[in-house]
Design a protein that fits this description.
Layout lengths: L1 H18 L44 H6 L12 H13 L1 H22 L4 E3 L2 E6 L17 E6 L2 E6 L4 H67 L5 H35 L35 H22 L5 E11 L11 E9 L8 H67 L5 H35 L30 H6 L14 E9 L1 H14 L1 H4 L3 E12 L2 E14 L2 H13 L4 E5 L3 H7 L3 H5 L1 H4 L14 H4 L16 E2 L7 E3 L6 E11 L2 H13 L4 E7 L5 E10 L2 H15 L4 E7 L9 E3 L1
Antiparallel strand pairs: 1-4, 2-3, 3-5, 4-5, 5-6, 7-9, 7-10, 8-9, 11-12, 12-17, 13-15, 13-16, 14-15
Length: about 775
Amino acid sequence: MRPILRPLCVSLALMSLAGCAAKRSQYDLPSVPMTGSFKQVEATVAPIEGDAAVAASEPRAVDGEALTESQLGEWWRLLNSPDLDQLVDRVLANNHDLRIATSRIAQARARMEQAVADELPTVSLPYQAKIEAPLQGIGRRLPGAPLESRQTYQIGPRIDWRVDLWGERSALAESADMQLWRTTYQRDDTRRTLVANTVALYVEYLSLNDRVKVARDTEKVLRDMLSSVRSRMEVGDATATEFEQQKAAVYSVQATIPALLLQRENVINGLAILAGGPPVSLALEEKGLASLNLPAVLPGLPASLLVRRPDVRVVEARLLAADADIDVARTRILPPLDLTAQVGYGSLSFSRLFQSSNLFWNAVANLSATIFDYGKRANETVYAKAVYEELVETYVKVIYTAIRETEDGIAAAQMNGEREQSQQQAADSAERAWKLSAEAYDAGAIDYLTLLDTQRTYHRNLDELHRVRMERFRGVVSLFAAMGGGIPVGDALPGKGARPARFAAGGNAPVTDEDLAAIDWRAAALENKDAPWLVELAGLQDRQGVVHVWRDLRQRFPTALGDKKFFPRLQGRVASNNEERATWYRVFVGAFGDQAGALDFCRILEAGMMRCRPLAAQDEQFRVAMAEPERAKRDAATVDRPTDVKIALPARDAAAGAAGLLAASGGEVRGGAKAAVTTDAKVVVLPATGLRSAHSVQLGSARDAAEAEKVKAAWVRKGYTAYVYPLLTASGGISYTLRTGVYGNAIDASEQCERIRQREGVLVYPVSVLVDADGLPAPRVLIR
């Protein structure tokens, strides 16, 4: 090997200076200038003089900090509609686009692992059986000599390895990893838009129900008026012209009803497609917009919150992948180093192949530099840099578009509220004018054209009122979607380099006690040998999707489901720094004692437009479907639901005792603490050194420390171990949140939330919390 290694080492030494600059150690995201908060739209409309003030219903207020951390995860529940909750569960459980996006995560995971594998040597076992003629070699046989042939046999393991000398393979692996994370955020964005589209269509459906009812009520009133005009015409008090005009008014309103019904039918069909079935599969109750609660959305949220939007994170991942691709192009200009080694046996006779005398080995080192390629490799670098520059501009554009959409949503929610109030006044005035004109017409004080005009005006204003109400709700829907609502929020993108600040996770679907009793995450019930059959539901589901699928089954097939269990089986996971980004499962229902029971249940699901197949536990097909990938098995301990993290609450600092605030690390200000940017000099921001993320349950919030102590005492009297966790708001003030418990992941916190909701009848939310090395809550804000 010495004749090979000596010149090779010299070549590597000469090119080391060029190589050390090829692959960078980290990739940064560019900083984007952003405003501190959104614009405030606070214009008011003065009432028209002489009109009675219309008391608008006050929407329920939503706490800004709670909205930021948790309520955005399932924001549609703020509308307080069980029918809408069930519809969203059904859509998230069965939507095809969502399943496609989950499958693409699995595809990207496979590609990423391929890229990682390219960094390692490849071991193969080639076997070669060769026959060649002439024996002397091509063109070497003498004229007239016999054509002789020779057989050779060769076998032995071979190792091929392209040494990642300049970082090409590691850059390819980082690019593939970013593409994997991109697919996880694309799935989140599909979920975000899917939830928004579902709620918006449902709002339109309810509004169309209201408008159909108005049209039918108006038609009835106009028909009654037509009968009155006919009676008056018969006695000579009305003319035939007035009778025909009234008849035209009746048929004009009647003609609007089929158009509204057609719109409603199109909306129902659209919702059915979102729910993963044909139009015939969905039936909705004929309720109106009054069945929804209109939440008040506080616009005073930091604009930086928008980096939680998955479409922004998608571009971030693409940008980091493009940055890594620049290094890939740069390293490919440098000469690659390929190492090959083989050891084995070779012989002219197969019977003597494995004799010791036929042992052979070889080793080859190939370092090949391209001298001239007409700029092909250099232009790959130029191309990669141009793609990166394009994505930088795309990144800025997507962020500013997100800000614009949020500003539009805030303006729509506020302006349409004012429009609704004014339109309500207009409709009320039009109704009074109609009633007064009807009385005046009966008394002969006005002509029929005036009466007809007031009829049309009232119908037009009432129809417009319901349309404005729909636009107001849809504005709120757009605002929640623009703020990234409907998805869980995890850690920043992995890797070294500048990243946007992370936001707390808290969007997991809450799990009820009934869910916990039926969802068997560890498939323990499969040990029952008397029930060897399961039904596999089509498609891959993420952790949230598993809960939505179970809820959908429970809501639509309660009788067929009975006491059957629900078995999610982990298929893959994407995580970084112990922060889970995505998981996906295959889901099963069972167990069934025989094939007939599984087939009957599957037929019931198929009648409800859910695809499934029965599987027998003893079949190879079943074992393949239930098998967890090796990597998923290694992660099972962190993916499955662990037990609660039991903690003792920390003692409060004496100085902070009067205010009732928890002091981090016994109340001492750690080194490096600096005052927050606020006019209150007592607010101190503690460094996050040594702290890690966990999960807790937020019970509520308070305006000041005294109120926080009162709220805490109330929860303690109910038997809960509550504590105060102060947070620094965007304006530099303090938000006093009340919390209980510390949990290892969001699912455990969500389960506790649902228990408290059922027991106490109040809304509580899972949130992230910082804990110290002892697992104790450690706020980063302290009042001294």
